[in-house]
């Protein structure tokens, strides 16, 4: 897995992302605590999560459109610089009367991130070879697991001793470092064809025409998903799983208190066990993923995850639950890395940004649906019953992946490069 770091361009991308993601995890823990300290309100604290979620739903697909139109490296550099600057506005907040500014910063940062993620997922296959793709995605998963484990702990300590100013400074600086790493990447991007206006004619770009053009491109990307069996299976299976994830997220605290009879520390151990499993799985992802056909690996991973969740819910023995959660963390990594690699390998470069943008939007929507189901049904069913339903949904999410053809990742041919924006009458360039 680590051999892919010999690729200078990927090493720069990965290093910058590792640093900026660690900064993000510091903020994930510190900001809600800061809001609660300011307001002493759980409702006010929950507002940050709403501010983070809304842009994912509204802008994820649109970000993918621009990731296919613009230089992806430039998009990532620009978004990192914007996020670094916007975070500094948090330094102005010293009283509850400025709580709106925290929500505004959170909303803007999340909105900008929707342009970053599709560009990143589409850029990786451009800077690594097809043979390195599993290793690159596995290393990306490894860094996510490491920062998820270390970030909240470090963030809590820094906030306790140095306050929110230290967290803002570190997170903002991490984006600047990530932008610098991206600036040092050198590669020859593929040329994306754009239809030009007839000779001698000028194309008048009106706001209506611009938005219609963007809409057509977005729909064009969705057609690619509809026509490609692998993409359809991944969108469907992952979407179903995210409904179960949304139900589970809402009930985590209730599960800890009512079923495990524990407290926040108990939940911390459960989450840490999953993180350790994910971390260890990332190290051996390349070997595991290359040994099994993608559809069988994903189906086994998600099916076993659902079964283990049901066992955890109905066998509240803490030591057993920790072991099973670690295994779930490992299975989740293998399933997600395999799915991401399949998407990258079966999507032409011209459409990769739109496919990943739509993917992020679909997952965000399905998580919100799961959260809504959990919230509405909490008064009708017990926590255990709802969690059993969540586990069953996880297991059922394995079924759509049977539509993936029987093949190994290595045998997947490079996708046919489709003419990007071929029907676009209006060239759109970043200002």
TrEMBL record:
Q: Report the locations given in the UniProt record.
A: Cell membrane
Q: Name one Pfam family in it.
A: MFS_3
Where it mainly occurs, coarsely classed, is membrane
The membrane topology term of the UniProt record is:
Multi-pass membrane protein
- From the record, give the transmembrane residue ranges: 12-35, 41-59, 80-103, 158-185, 233-255, 267-284, 296-317, 323-343, 355-374, 380-402
What are the protein's UniProt keywords?
Answer: Cell membrane, Membrane, Transmembrane, Transmembrane helix, Transport
* UniProt cross-references to Gene3D superfamilies, sorted A to Z: MFS general substrate transporter like domains (1.20.1250.20)
All residue ranges annotated as the Major facilitator superfamily (MFS) profile domain in the record:
9-403
Report the InterPro entries cross-referenced here. Answer: Bacilysin_exporter_BacE_put (IPR022324), MFS_dom (IPR020846), MFS_trans_sf (IPR036259), TM_effector (IPR010290)
**UniProt-listed PANTHER family:** INTEGRAL MEMBRANE EFFLUX PROTEIN-RELATED, MAJOR FACILITATOR SUPERFAMILY ASSOCIATED DOMAIN-CONTAINING PROTEIN
Q: What is this protein called?
A: MFS transporter
